[in-house]
């Protein structure tokens, strides 16, 4: 389990207050599940998420695209992504959630929450 801390600006240019947890669980069948749980997202919103190489202060390239984080009416967001354990990089990797979802015509925007696994 790793803490996710506010990072960057929200889509409306206010400083991010989004924070939460990411939990990576490995199973004996060669699968892993990465669960993201965050608070303070805009209500009823969706956000792209991924694993990136590097650290929050030095983000590298995207290593693995994760499932979108969906926020409820209170701004509590959740995501659960199942993937083969072999797809998870062995080097330092960071969980990142973005201002918008991949389906947004404006693009995903900047990072709003970050945590190093």
Automatic annotation (TrEMBL):
Q: Name one GO molecular function term.
A: metal ion binding
- Gene Ontology process terms (BP): superoxide metabolic process
| SUPFAM superfamilies the record matches | Cu,Zn superoxide dismutase-like
- Source domain of life is Bacteria
Extract the InterPro entries matched here: SOD-like_Cu/Zn_dom_sf
Q: Which family does it belong to?
A: Belongs to the Cu-Zn superoxide dismutase family.
* Name by which UniProt lists this protein: Uncharacterized protein
**Source species of the chain:** Calidithermus terrae
């Amino acid at each position: 389990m790793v803490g996710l801390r506010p990072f960057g600006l929200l889509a409306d240019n206010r400083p991010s207050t989004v924070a939460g947890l990411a939990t990576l669980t490995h199973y004996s069948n060669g699968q892993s599940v990465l669960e993201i749980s965050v608070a303070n997202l805009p209500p009823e919103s969706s956000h792209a998420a991924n694993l990136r190489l590097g650290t929050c202060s030095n983000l590298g390239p995207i290593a693995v695209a994760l499932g979108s984080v969906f926020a409820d009416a209170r701004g509590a967001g959740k995501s659960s992504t199942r993937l083969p354990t072999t797809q998870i990089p062995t080097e330092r990797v960071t969980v990142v959630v973005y201002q918008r979802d991949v389906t947004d015509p404006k693009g995903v925007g900047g990072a709003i929450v970050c945590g190093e696994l």
